[in-house]
Amino acid sequence: MQILTTDVAIIGGGAAGCYTALNLQKRGIKSIIVCKGLVGKSGASLFAGNLVISGRLLGNSETQARNTAEFLIKYHNQFLIDQEWARRCGAWIEQVYYPELEELGLYFRRDDEGNVVTSPGAIRSIAANVQGNSGVPFMDLRRKQVIRAGIPRLEETVATALMHNRDGHVGGVFCLNYMTSEYVAVQARAVVLATGYSDRLHQRSTGTREMSADGIAMAWRAGATLVNMEMQWWHTNDIADPPSWQRMQVYPNPMLGSEKSAQMINSAGEEFFNQQNDDPLAFGPYTVQLKALAKQVHAGKARYDGGYYAGFNNCDASEVETYTTYGKTFRQLGLKFPEQLVETAVTSHYRQGGIDVDTTAMRSSLPGLYAAGGVSGHSNGLIGLATYDGKVVADGIFAAFESLPDRPISEAECEVERRRLDGLRSRSQPGITPVKVKEKLRKLMWDKVGVEKSAAGLRSALEDIEEIRLGVLPDMSISTRSSAANFEWLDAIDVMNMIDVCELIVHSSLERKESRGPFFRTDFPATDNRNWLVANVLRKLGNGLRFEQRPYQLPFFSPDFEVRDNLQVAW
Amino acid sequence: MLETSPRDGASRIGQAEHDDTLLARNSRIAPGASIVVRIRRQSNGGDRYDTFNVPYRKWMRVLDALNWIAENAATDLAYRWICGSKMCGTCAVRMNGREVLACWEAVEPEMTIEPLRNLPVIRDLVVDRTPFENKVARLEPWIERPDAYTGFPEPLSHKQMKDASKALDCIGCMCCYSACPVIGLGDLTDFAGPAPLVQLGQTALDPRNSPVKVARSLALTGIFNCVSCYKCEEVCPAAIPIVSRVIEPLKAKAAQLLPEHARHSRALRRIIAERGRVDPGALVLRVQGLRAFGRLPRIIRLLLRGKINPLRTLFGTKTTAAEPARRLLGREVSQ
After folding, report:
1. Taking the alpha carbons of B109, B112, B117, B120 in that order, is the dihedral positive or negative?
2. Min CA distance, A489 vs chain B (Å)?
3. Residue ranges of domains in chain B
4. pTM higher than 0.90, yes or no?
5. What pLDDT was estimated at residue B3?
6. E strands in chain B
7. Closest-CA residue in chain B for A437?
8. Which of A99, A144, A333 has the CB atom closest to B59's CB atom?
9. Under an 8 A CB cutoff, do A41 and B157 touch?
10. CATH 3.90.700 residue spans of chain A
11. Among residues A125, A144, A138, which one has the least CA distance to residue A48?
12. FRET pair for A430, CA 20 to 30 Å: which of A23, A290, A299, B42?
């Protein structure tokens, strides 16, 4: 086994991870990026469709600046957010983020006269080259910055467990390069988890193939506190079929250079959602859409897994395709664009919750462990927010650097982890494959921990999870013998993370006894700001867990009601 | 009826295949029928083809077939994919001899799936991307500004970014790198290949970049080894006009910034402009000068095969095509 030593081990090669590494380097701190896929090509950052123009940028009015903040706090996070962090983040995006990206060469789409093309409305956005594809050049730029800076990358290498040093601090991470089947331990003064949203825990989910909640699972096993794990976001109009296009959305957001947006049509042919008319303030109106869809499902005019349609038949093809990639799916399916609509379905998307952090430095509850971007539980969505976390965590580590011990990690812990992984690989008696176990988990999450949840369903999900743990996992085995590109072994490692995190999500969902934004409880249908405008904090106690509530400060925006039926709440 | 998409006409050579949509294929294969998938399995131990019968499902793509096989028939099959929706560019394979993105391309009733060419195979369909990544990094595809950045938003128009913007659609899938016959020649040339050139074009065709920096990068590309065969454009899943909008503009830049690298290309254009035809003898003389006579055996071979005709080179007159050629090539030739 190889042991690499550096100052900071960064797990994840998306917007947060790359930016952490680049900012640490500016401050003279070395890091290594461990990436389960390929830096800049895996994880959620790649999917950034466009970039929100915050504050007074690009001629935003005072109202538009305020709208952006309101959107983030209300529609994006349902008030479960540190508003002071949001304010700092907004100011940074306005002053640093865009100029820095453009100076590096990111191309914000212009028209032939040289104007930056924006979407219209209460909240505006721009695109890196093309709307729908902004994450591709954005992350490609980050990948090249990392290469240019000479920051070491361990790619197609999965981090499997956090390691402690003699002081009891998190001081490293155990990894497997699944292309070569070699173990690597990275020893560092601090570990930054930047593994993104958990994703791919439901039968239909966004995100990339490799996502299996590894960051949350590793942090939880090491004893870190989690928060708001039940707060799951959903995409409402993603392609129903074929399967891996389930993350491809018929974007409901305002379009660059057009006054129109996509429309959603129920099985009776009636339009039931159009962003421009139904909620101009919700720039990314996903939750608003979800509520509109729920009403259709209740009326028998749609299902969460299909039976309704979306498209751009209210637009000209050129209006859609001048600045966006939105036509590509329709065309590849062989549908007439923009005349024909495509069948859509719900997909689990970001998780607002995650690892509980102190938002001034992104410190977790464990000494030496930090979390940045989607894996942390302080906010939801948007590539700019994840990037900002990378800056905050780098600043935080720099400030605390002298107090972070530079000690070797526990050899005994490494040995335990090595045996665990060897065990997952060596179970070669014929049994169930890891991919089939993943399918089982995703199906049960979809059926019982889907859009609409109830105590009865959630309890039944816990029983199913227990049954998989006791009855299925012991029979899980892999047949790949090769040490080259052993994806099956990786799948087996994923399963162990997924099952732990699925269970925590179910417990957290049972705990929040209200409905809020995209979190629907049929047995508690009201949004309850009197009792539940709080962080649902999940602490590890030995092998058990305990919930605590922590209220949010509301310095800038607060809800204007105490208790109201969630489906009647705009956000 | 196939739907044709509105792409820029002449530059879309080979696009007929791509317009064969999932729906069109869908009508060719009956639901429930089996498709036959042969997969090249390569590992340390050997190289063989395994055949699988995969039940067809609506809108089936190559990736769906691979997933079905890995879930049901060969759980040890190694193939790479990350996003499944034409953004990460990691699932490219060769299907029936042409490069496709598995997540995007429709299945064929009978198909042979092989790994990309021109890259080492790790196992089965997984190739080692490192040689490609190293080539890209060596070209330093980033911006070095000659002048200080003026603040967001800086003056810039889409007209100026027209070609760079096309290159920015690149997802680094390496389909073109696998299809390129010059790359297929291995170390015989120092050609960087289409994908690294597109990656370079993203910043080298950007007016904000310093010409000194661009020249430094272009000097490492061996760009004039490109034979403009359009194989790269033919397979590009992102529909980038690689030759016409990236390589040709880069060649023009190289000819201007690095004239010594462009000797062959400039000589050829001059000859065409002067004579209205290609004259291989004159080309050899102009590019190689007196050195040509040091390679007598080759000269004799060229003579015997009628490739060069000294009499025509010395005494031949210009054809009527000379005038239009001069007009067409005029600007470049006079440089």
Report:
1. positive
2. 10
3. 15-127, 130-257, 262-333
4. yes
5. 38
6. 34-43, 46-55, 92-95, 98-101, 110-114, 121-123, 126-127
7. B71
8. A333
9. no
10. 234-350
11. A138
12. B42
What is the interface size between A and B, counted as CB pairs within 8 Å?
A: 188
Closest partner CB to B104 (pick from A41, A332, A486): A332
ipTM (interface predicted TM) = 0.95
CA angle A392, A219, A400 (to 5 degrees): 35
CATH fold of A234-350 reads Flavocytochrome C3; Chain A, domain 1 (3.90.700)
- Whether residue B76 and residue A481 make contact (CB cut-off 8 A), yes or no, is yes
B310 to chain A, closest Cα gap in Å: 51
Give the Cβ contact number of residue A447 at 10 Å.
14
Nearest CA in chain B to A47: B87
CB atoms within 10 A of CB A160: 22
- pLDDT of residue B5 exceeding 50, the answer is no
Are residues A484 and B26, on separate chains, in Cβ contact within 8 Å? no
Binning pLDDT at 50, 70 and 90, where does residue B15 land? very low
A483: closest CA of chain B, how far (Å): 10
A46 interaction partners in chain B (CB closer than 8 Å) = 83, 87-88
Q: In 10 A of CB A92, how many CB atoms?
A: 19
Calpha distance B209→B198 (Å, rounded): 15
C-alpha A109/C-alpha A125 separation (Å) is: 11
Contacts of A478 in chain B (CB under 8 A): 75-76
What's B15-127's CATH class? Answer: alpha beta
Q: And the tokens for B117?
A: 């060419």
Strand partners, A371: A193
Per-residue pLDDT 10s for chain A (571 aa) are 899 999 999 999 999 999 999 999 999 999 999 999 999 999 889 999 999 998 999 999 999 999 999 999 999 999 999 999 999 999 999 999 999 999 999 999 999 999 999 998 889 999 999 999 999 999 999 999 999 999 999 999 999 999 999 989 999 999 999 999 999 999 999 999 999 987 799 999 998 888 999 999 999 999 999 999 999 999 999 999 887 788 888 988 889 999 888 999 999 999 999 888 887 777 778 899 999 999 999 999 999 999 999 999 999 999 999 999 999 899 888 889 999 999 999 999 989 999 999 999 999 999 999 999 999 999 877 899 999 999 999 999 999 999 999 999 999 999 999 999 999 998 767 899 999 999 999 999 999 999 999 999 999 999 999 999 999 999 999 999 999 999 999 999 999 999 999 999 999 999 999 999 999 999 999 999 999 999 999 999 988 999 999 999 999 999 999 999 999 999 9
Task: Calculate how close chain B gets to A175, using CA atoms only, in Å.
Answer: 19
Q: Do B157 and A110 touch (CB under 8 A)?
A: yes
Residue B231, pLDDT score: 96
CATH architecture of A415-568: Up-down Bundle (1.20)
Order of strands across the sheet that contains A369-371: A153-154, A31-34, A8-11, A190-193, A369-371
Structural tokens at position B303: 């003579």
Question: In the CATH scheme, what is the code of domain B130-257?
Answer: 1.10.1060.10
Tell me the C-alpha distance between A185 and A191, whole Å. 12
Burial class (CB in 10 A: 0-12, 13-18, 19+), A2: exposed
Q: Which of B153, B161, B164 has the CB atom closest to A102's CB atom?
A: B153
CA distance A254 to A276: 7
Taking contacts as CB-CB distances below 8 angstroms, the residues of chain B near A110 are: 156-158, 161
Reading the block at residue A562, the tokens are 């105490």
- Single-letter amino acid code for the residue at A215: G
- How many beta carbons lie within 10 A of that of residue A307, not counting itself? 17
Instruction: Give the H or E element holding residue A136.
Output: helix A135-148
- Longest Cα–Cα distance of chain B, Å, equals 72
